[in-house]
């Protein structure tokens, strides 16, 4: 009797576990004659390999026991891997779904019993909504935080913001309304250029020490006045890097009236003080008025030590520049390096405004709020010329806040009067209305020479 060798082709790629399993073959043929699907036991052969590779299995070969019946039917999932009930997931990002492995009894295998979800349009939420393996791949969008009526008027313009870590970032490059200055621009975005911009002029040396009006605390700081990182400005200068105490002096880049008198230079100390005449470098802060500290700004008078030092920079263009003096990443002394303090004094050209802006204030929860500092300004050593904001008292001096002092009208001595000039097309007009000192005329009870005494020198 002649033995017939049958060659069975296993089609498909069905993953089965173990050897000696049986498989229902969806397509089988013997030589060139098609036959119905059968269950073929394959002892000694890793069926998963055979199916994955499409390998032909000889029914008469030692690897196949042809005498075993072929009508075994479904084999269930006993011994399949992963076992039924094992957790599984499919899909990526927002399409990912969790489930468990279930039995395909007809194939004798387990499959994940859940399908992936449907993708959705990408939004700024820290998730992969469209299921492409990337999170928040969204183009920047337009933004504007100023009044809607000002958008696109004067210098005001919209900015852009990018999606960062699931949230829209700051509105970069936007310009919102600011105080109108003499620069030929519409800074306050009301449709008019240099409107209402005037300043006192003339020889103000005959005035009494100037007084200032402090605006309500800028907390939070308005968008019109942003903190300037002077150390990042091209051409900046650095002083006292790594110093504990000490002071430095620099000439001012523009004419400035400090406390009613012309100032040509400023002195700044490592301990948070700016002086136009004499600045104290002492690390022992006191209340105000302080001795030997005339015409001074006490931004954060405390015992400080420098890391990066004090940076100075001139920003903007004439006649509306600002001069910035920044204490960059200072620390308390002798505290640990956990304290980080960045703050600055800003002097405005033309308006002669003095600002103190607070950037990063971190570390000691009390001391960073000013519990050991003096904050304020002082003209001379009299209480009348002093504005004490705080002394050794914790206050909401948080990052992103500030103080602003605007000069009050000059208090001239005697008959002397300051003049006034009006800005037009970005330039200051003639100084009109100024009255300077004159020769004293006896008997009229007036102080014409503006020295503070009437009819002095008269018989």
Structural overview:
This protein has one helix spanning 47-53, and strands at residues 7-9, 22-24, 28-30, 33-35, 39-41, 56-58, 87-90, 97-104, 109-112, 141-143, 159-161, 163-164, 167-168, 198-201, 212-214, 237-239, 247-258, 261-269, 273-275, 296-301, 304-305, 310-315, 322-332, 340-348, 354-362, 374-378, 386-391, 401-407, 419-424, 427-428. The chain has 459 residues and is mostly beta strands. The strands form 9 sheets. Strands 15, 16, 21, 22, 23, 24, 25 and 28 form an 8-stranded antiparallel beta sheet that branches. Strands 17-18-19-20-26-27 form a 6-stranded antiparallel beta sheet, with no helix packed on it. Strands 7-8-9 form a 3-stranded antiparallel beta sheet, with no helix packed on it. A hairpin with a 7-residue loop joins strand 26 and strand 27 (386-391).
pLDDT < 50 stretches: 1-74
**Contiguous helical run count:** 1
User: How is the quaternary structure best described?
Assistant: single chain
Rg over C-alpha atoms, rounded to the nearest angstrom: 41 Å
Tell me the layout of helices and strands.
Blueprint: E1 7-9, E2 22-24, E3 28-30, E4 33-35, E5 39-41, H1 47-53, E6 56-58, E7 87-90, E8 97-104, E9 109-112, E10 141-143, E11 159-161, E12 163-164, E13 167-168, E14 198-201, E15 212-214, E16 237-239, E17 247-258, E18 261-269, E19 273-275, E20 296-301, E21 304-305, E22 310-315, E23 322-332, E24 340-348, E25 354-362, E26 374-378, E27 386-391, E28 401-407, E29 419-424, E30 427-428
Antiparallel strand pairs: 1-6, 2-5, 3-4, 7-8, 8-9, 10-11, 12-13, 14-29, 15-28, 16-22, 17-18, 18-19, 19-20, 20-26, 21-23, 22-23, 23-24, 24-25, 25-28, 26-27, 29-30
């Amino acid at each position: 009797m002649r033995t017939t060798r049958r060659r069975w082709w296993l089609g498909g790629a069905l993953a089965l576990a173990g050897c000696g399993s049986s498989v229902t073959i969806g397509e089988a043929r013997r030589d060139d004659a098609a036959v119905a699907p059968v269950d073929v036991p394959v002892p000694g052969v890793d069926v998963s390999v055979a199916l994955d590779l499409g390998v032909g299995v000889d029914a008469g070969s030692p690897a196949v026991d042809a005498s075993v019946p072929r009508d075994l039917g479904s084999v269930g999932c006993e011994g399949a891997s992963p076992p039924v009930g094992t957790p599984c997931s499919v899909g990526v990002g927002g399409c990912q779904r969790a489930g468990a492995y279930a039995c395909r009894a007809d194939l004798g295998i387990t499959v994940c019993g859940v399908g992936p979800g449907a993708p959705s349009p990408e939004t700024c939420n820290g998730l992969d909504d469209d299921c492409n393996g990337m999170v928040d791949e969204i183009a920047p969008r337009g933004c504007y935080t100023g009044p809607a009526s000002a958008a696109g008027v004067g210098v005001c313009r919209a900015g852009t913001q990018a999606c960062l870590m699931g949230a829209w970032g700051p509105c970069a490059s936007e310009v919102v309304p600011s105080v109108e200055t003499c620069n030929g621009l519409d800074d306050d975005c009301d449709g008019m250029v240099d409107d209402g911009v005037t300043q006192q002029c003339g020889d103000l040396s005959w005035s009494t020490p100037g007084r200032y009006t402090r605006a309500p605390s800028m907390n939070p700081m308005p968008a019109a006045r942003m903190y300037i990182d002077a150390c990042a400005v091209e051409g900046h200068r650095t002083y006292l890097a790594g110093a504990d105490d000490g002071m430095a002096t620099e000439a001012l880049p523009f004419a400035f009236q400090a406390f009613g008198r012309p100032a040509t230079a400023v002195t700044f100390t490592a301990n948070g003080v700016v002086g136009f005449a004499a600045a104290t470098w002492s690390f022992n802060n006191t209340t105000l008025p302080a001795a030997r500290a005339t015409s001074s700004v006490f931004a954060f008078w405390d015992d400080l030590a420098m890391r990066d030092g004090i940076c100075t920079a001139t920003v903007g263009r004439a006649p509306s520049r600002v001069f910035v003096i920044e204490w960059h990443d200072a620390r308390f002394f002798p505290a640990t390096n956990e304290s980080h303090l960045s703050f600055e004094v800003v002097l405005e050209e033309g308006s002669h405004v003095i600002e103190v802006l607070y950037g990063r204030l971190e570390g000691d929860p009390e001391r960073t709020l000013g519990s050991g500092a003096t904050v304020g300004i002082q003209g001379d050593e009299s209480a009348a010329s002093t504005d004490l904001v705080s002394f050794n008292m914790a206050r909401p001096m948080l990052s992103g806040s500030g103080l602003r002092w605007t000069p009050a009208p000059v208090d001239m001595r005697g008959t002397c009067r300051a003049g006034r000039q009006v800005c037009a097309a970005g330039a200051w007009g003639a100084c009109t209305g100024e009255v300077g000192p004159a020769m004293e005329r006896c008997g009229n009870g007036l102080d014409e020479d503006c020295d503070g005494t009437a009819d002095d020198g008269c018989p």
